């Protein structure tokens, strides 16, 4: 599979840490020390994952080497849907009259983007599609509880769009070398660690410590697995992009793998935890800076539990 173009959308508003002092008594220093977050992005009231996905597509279109109507598969990946019937995939299909595309929605918490890539891979393998559009977006502010002292200060909003083809279209296309995902619902605290029940408290993370431990275990493990399987070592890795949940997780992984800070790409300090789009967003924001022969790992861990990683070669 090959990445033909990427785009992204980040709302303009930033909510700083001081906002939470009056809400739940957390100081800016406390939040920064434990999460690395200084501000987080927040969508407008009238924005949602459908509208943000449209904006991400608009950002990608000038770089797309074919007409968008050639897309024959659209996958929306998110855990914070605006409409569970007319999804972001259908919204983009309608906006651009992409008449011959399949359109669907999937959710696997913060692993949703990587699972979407794997679904695309499956459609390509079956010969049922050849050009796909993956829409990754979350509007956490639609569901979070800002007064929750455990997780109310973490969340941001954003969207990304990835156009992907079965065969190489242009010389600049990056190759998705391999995608790996795994469900981890069998782990002891998986069912209660993180949950989003729209009518029962919104997004909550009562088992944050367990999430931290599991993320620090599976995110590096998956990258090492893919590197070894594809004949690479850590020395071959140009950039490491992890799910933007907590900078302490990234620091822990950096220590485990003995990787220098300059190999880690991140945006959590400005945008907060943007959910399932976070790693895709980091990639799209840095896409123009990647060079030929760069090897990039994306690795994630999400509620449910779920995990996954992929390797991208430029």
> For the report, how would you describe the main beta sheet?
10 strands, mixed
* Unreliable spans: none
Instruction: Quickly count the helices.
Output: 10
CATH class of the largest domain: Alpha Beta
The CATH topology of the largest domain: Peroxisomal Thiolase, Chain A, domain 1
Computed structural class = alpha/beta
Mean pLDDT: 96
- Sum up the overall morphology in one term: globular
Count of domains: 2
Q: Report, as a whole number of angstroms, the end-to-end distance.
A: 12 Å
What is the radius of gyration computed over CA atoms, rounded to a whole number of angstroms?
18 Å
State the share of residues found in helices, binned by percent: 25-40%
What is the number of beta strands? 14
Q: What do we call the CATH homologous superfamily of the largest domain? A: Thiolase/Chalcone synthase
Order of helices and strands: EEHHEHEHEHEEEHEEHEHEHHEE
GO molecular function, one term: 3-oxoacyl-[acyl-carrier-protein] synthase activity
EC number: 2.3.1.180
Keywords: Acyltransferase, Transferase
Domain Beta-ketoacyl-[acyl-carrier-protein] synthase III C-terminal: 227-313
